Amino acid sequence: MVDLERREQFEDEGxxxxxxxxxxxxxxxPAESSDRASRFLYEGRERDGPDPHGILxxxxxxxxxxxxxxxxxxxxxxxxxDGETLTYLHSTISTRNQRVRVPEIPMHLDALLVxxxxxxxxxxxxxxxxxxxxxxxxxxxxxxxxxxxDLNRLAMPYRWSTRAILxxxxxxxxxxxxxxxxxxxxxxxIASIVREVMTNEASVLVDNDAxxxxxxxxxxLQSLGADDVGQAYITATITVWDGSASIATEKLRLVEKIIxxxxxxxxxxxxxxxxxxxxxxxxxxxxxxRLPRSRP
Length: 296
Known about the structure:
single chain; alpha+beta; 6-stranded antiparallel β-sheet; 10 helices; Conjugal transfer protein TrbE-like; ATP binding; CagE_TrbE_VirB_cntrl_dom
C-alpha cells in the first residue's frame, strides 16, 4: 500500500520535477588557409579547399574518444539519437514540453524546431513566457559536490547552462601574457614612474593589488607551461520563466539567494538579457562570452 501511494504520488502530473543533463560538443572547422598550407607540406594532395568528409570524420572520432573517457565514471552516458536530439534542441528554444520526430527529409530544422517567437528588450519573452536570466560572474575558492543542490528543491523548473570555450596552449599563453603585462604595468602610476626617472630612486609605494594579480597571472602561465591545467572562457547562466513578469522575477530572486549564499557572485541580466539567453543555447559560442578565463 505504501509503495502504491508513492508510485501514484510520483506519477502525479506537476507533483515533481526530473533533472536531465546534456553535453553538447561544438568544433569549429579549420580555416581554408590552413588547408592550403598543408598542401605545401604533404605530397599527393590535389584537392582544392578543405575536405568536409575528413573534417566530419575527425569530429566524430574526437567525440567518440570523449564519450569513451566519460564511460569510465559515467556508464549511463550515451549519445542521443536523431529524434532525441531534435527534442532536446526544441526544449532549449521553447517552453512547450513535447517530442519532435525526425522528418522524412531532414532539412529546414530552423522551421521545424521553432514554434514560439522571441521578443527582445529589457524583459525578453519566449512566446507568452517572460525570460529571466542570471549569469554567474565569480566562483568560490572551494566547492564540493552538490553545492547548489538546494536549487533542485525549488518548486519550479529552471535551465542551467555552462559553456566552456576551450583555448589551446598557444592562444592561452598569449592571453595570460597580455594579462600579466597589463597588471604589471599598473603597479606604478605614471607620476611615480616620472618621479623615479627624475630622482633616480625607486618608488617605495606600489599598487599591491596589481602586483598580486600579475603574480597570479604568472602562476597561471607556469601551470599552463607544465601542462597541469588548461584555460577556457566559462559562461554559466540560469534561466527561469513564467507567464507573469512578477512571478518570473520572484523565481529569479529565489535562485539568486541560493547562489549568493554559496559564495558565488552573480548578476541578473537586464540590458544584456537577450545576449545572455542566446549564449545559453547549445552551439552558440559568440554571445555573452565572459571574462576572465577559468582553469578547467
